[in-house]
Amino acid sequence: MAELNMTNPVAEYGKEAIVTLSPREHIRLRPGMYIGKLGDGTQADDGIYVLLKEVVDNSIDEFIMGAGKRIEITVEGDKVSVRDYGRGIPLEALADAVSKMNTGGKYGGDAFKKTVGLNGVGVKAVNMLSAHFLARSVRNGEARTVTFSQGLELTDRSESGVEEQNGTYVEFVVDREVFGDYAYNIEYVEQMVKNYTYLNLGLSVVLNGKPYISKNGLLDLVNDNMSSEPLYAPMHISGEDIEIVITHGNGYGEAYYSFVNGQYTPQGGTHQAAFREAVAKTIKEFYRKDYDPSDIRTSIIAAISVRVDDPIFESQTKTKLGSKDKEEGVTMRQFVGDFLSTNLDNYLHKHPETAQILQKKIVENEKERKAISGVQKKAREAAKKVSLNNKKLRDCKIHYTDKSDLAEQTMIFITEGNSASGSITSSRDPRTQAVFSLRGKPLNCYGLTKRVVYENEEFNLLQAALNIEEDMDNLRYNKVIIATDADVDGMHIRLLLTSFFLQFFPDVIRLGHLYILQTPLFRVRNKKETHYCYSDDERVEAVKKCGAQAEITRFKGLGEISAAEFKEFIGEGMRLDKVRLTKDDPIHDLLDFYMGKNTPDRKDFIVGNLRVEEDIIEDLKSVN
Question: How far is Cα 265 from Cα 259, in angstroms, rounded to an integer?
Fold first, then answer.
C-alpha cells in the first residue's frame, strides 16, 4: 500500500486552496442546494418552477396576513412576472430584501405568522439566478423600483405621487448561463396556481389573464384530481389550523395531498405520517374492530392541510415537513390525532350511510389481503432468496432513500431482452442508474387482483426491486423508466407495464415517478457531424444539414444501438416523457377498451385507424 501511495503523490494543500465565496457566488455555483435540481422545464419540480414559487410564496404570505386578495401571474416566453396587492415591501428596505441573504421580515415578531418563506433565501436566489430581475414596491403613493442582473444591482429609482394600488411587482428572466435551454410548461404553472387557491379560500390568482378561485378548499382539490367516482361522498372536515378531506376509490395504494402553511409537500412529512396513523386508529375505534391499518388505508384518497408556527422543512425546496411540533407544547402527532379522534368520529356517527360503505370497503380489503397471504409469503421468501443475486436486476450503488446528494438522480430502466439491457448496462452510470430486464412481454394484468403480483415471478421481482410492496416511503429509485423499442411491440410493452402500475401501484404515477424513455429513430451523419433524430421532422432537418451524401440509419431496436451511443441517450441529454394522471383521463374506460376483453371492438378500431408510413429517405436526399 505504501508503494501505491508513492506512485500517487498527494496534491499540495495550502491556504490558497481555501476559497471563500460570497452568497451570490455560492448560489450561482451550487444552485441545487437552494432550489433542488435545475432541469429544463419538462418536469414539474424543475428549478424554474421553484423560482416562480419562491416569488409567489411571498405574495401568499401577504394574503395569509390579511393583505391583498388578488395575485396576477404572467408567463410570456422566458419572462415571468408576479403582482400582488398586499402591503408592499417597505421602500427603504426593498433593495436589501431582494438581494441580501438572510434579510427579511419573517424571523420573529408578529409581521408574519404561520407562513412559508421563513429563511430569507427564496427571492434572493431568484435574483441571483436571473439574467434580468426587477422588483417594484408601492406604498401609499410612493414607489421604488430596483433592477438587477445575475444578482448585481443595475438601477434604483424612487417615485412620488403614483396612483397605483399598494403591493409588490416582481419580474424576472431565469439565467440561461446557469440553466441552459429551458421552457415553461403552462400546465405545471396552472397546477401550482390551483394548489394555492385550494389552500387559501377567498384568494384569486390570475394566470395569463385567466382567474382561478376555489370555493370549497381541499374538497375541490380532491374532486378535481379523481379520475373516477369515489365510493362515497368525500368527508370534508376543518378546524382551526387544520383541514382534511377523506374518501376511498376502487384501486390499490394510498393517495395523499398534504400541505403546510399553503405549501404543497409531495414527500409528506410529520403531518402526513400523523394523519395516516390517526385515521386508522380513529376508524378502528369507531367500529370497535381491530382492523389492520393497511385494510383501512388501501384505496384511500385524502388531503390534509395544517398551519404551523415556524415550520421546519427538510430542504430549501420545502417538499417534506420535518417539524415534530405544531406549536410550542403541542406535537404534530397529538394535534392531528386529537382532531381526527373527535371530528372524524363525529362525522361517521352523523353519516351512517358513509360509515356503512367505508366498513364494506375495509372488509373487502381484508378478505383480499388474507386470500393472498399464502402466496404472498412464498413470493416474499422467493424474493429474499434472489435479492442478493437477482439476475433481472443490475442495481446501482446509490438509492432514493439514501442521504446522498445524488439520491434525486437515481433511476431504474425497465427494459425487455438481453441485447437492450446489455446496451443500457454497459453505458449506464453505475452510481445512480439501475437496469431491470424483462423476459419478453409481461402479463396483461388488467382486471386481475393483486394476487398476480405475487404469483408472477417478474412482477414479484419488480416490486421487490422497487421496494414498494408496503408503501411508497421506501421507493429505491426516484425515476422508474420504461425503456422499450420504438416499434409496435415496444409500444405494447409500454402499455402492459403502465397498466401494471395503474392497477396495483398507482402512487408511482401519482407522485410523478414513472417515465417513458425516448430513444432515437434515426442516425444521420457525414464525415464531420452526427445527428440523432427522434422524429421524421428532426430527420428532415438533419439530412439538410449533412447533405445529400449523408448516411441514414434506422434504429429498429434498442439492441442495435451501441453502448457508446446509448451513453448519450441516458445521460444529461436524456429525453423522458412523464406518465401523468389527470381528472380528464378516463382511466378505467381507456384500460377497459385497450387492455380488456373486448377483442372485436378493439380489432374494428385498429383496422379503422390503420395508416401506412412510407420510407422517404431517398426523397429527403433529393432535397439537397
Answer: 5
